[in-house]
Amino acid sequence: MKEQVLFYRRLFGRFATGVAVVLTEDDGEIRGITVNSLTSASLDPLLLLFCVSNNSRTGEAILRSGRFTVNILTADQENAARYFAGRKDMNDEFAYGQEEGFVWLAQSNAVFRCQLEVSHPSGDHRIILGRVKNMLGPDECQRLLVYHEGHYANLQSKTITESPIEARPT
Ligand SMILES: Cc1cc2nc3c(=O)[nH]c(=O)nc-3n(C[C@H](O)[C@H](O)[C@H](O)COP(=O)(O)O)c2cc1C
User: Fold this and answer.
1) How far is ligand 1, taken at its centre, from the CA of residue 68, in Å?
2) Which domains does the chain have, with CATH numbers?
3) Is this structure's pTM higher than 0.85?
């Protein structure tokens, strides 16, 4: 890899992020990818985005299926982060929720069910913009999984939500 790319990656690793798994169902098979390029893009309408490599099989599946869930992981879901980042040798017995063509990871800190709004080429990646159809999550944020300088870490959030976040249509 070019020196400049390595330096870029090293410096960007100083931007600590949460960790999410994006899941979709394609031809009856669950496909997933671990991402940390996730960001909220709009509140009206509710839009989120992430970037997916042009080589990603999950990216292709999302373009085909037109729908996906974004699962924000807790510290207890580190094995899911590793599995969906390519460690397919790991135990893959995750508890899934499934409804209306969406599949998600149970016990996540947040789940956003999205329809593909648009995808845009971006060099060796593609920007995926999703319209949030509905969402769910526990009343209180669980200890969360973070990623920093190529390592996973845990963070106990002090935030307590004032009103429960339940699945509600937008
Ligand atoms: C913490 C972390 C964050 C990642 N973020 C992204 C990302 O935002 N976009 C991406 O394309 N790959 C990202 N990856 C790499 C993919 O998870 C990995 O290449 C995966 O194996 C792709 O799976 P697929 O080809 O089956 O879709 C990340 C990996 C890790 C460990």
Assistant:
1) 15
2) 2-155 (2.30.110.10)
3) yes
State the distance from the centre of ligand 1 to the C-alpha of 35, rounded, in angstroms: 5
Torsion sign across C-alpha atoms 84, 132, 12, 141:
negative
Tell me: the pLDDT tens digits for 69-116?
999 999 999 999 999 999 877 777 899 999 999 999 999 999 999 999
- Atom 18 of ligand 1: nearest residue by CA position: 85
Closest ligand 1 atom to Cα of 147: 1
Q: What is d(CA 74, CA 87) in angstroms, rounded to the nearest whole number?
A: 18
- Cα-Cα-Cα-Cα torsion 42, 103, 25, 90, nearest 10 degrees, comes to 110
47-74: pLDDT as tens digits? 999 999 999 999 999 999 999 999 999 9
Report the residue among 30, 31, 34, 154 best suited for mutation to probe ligand 1: largest number of ligand atoms under 8 A from its CB. Answer: 34
- What are the φ/ψ torsions at residue 8 (nearest 5 degrees)? -60, -50
Q: Which of 136, 138, 156 is nearest to 146 (CA)?
A: 156
CA 133 to CA 102: how far, in whole Å?
11
CA of 88 to the centre of ligand 1 (A): 13
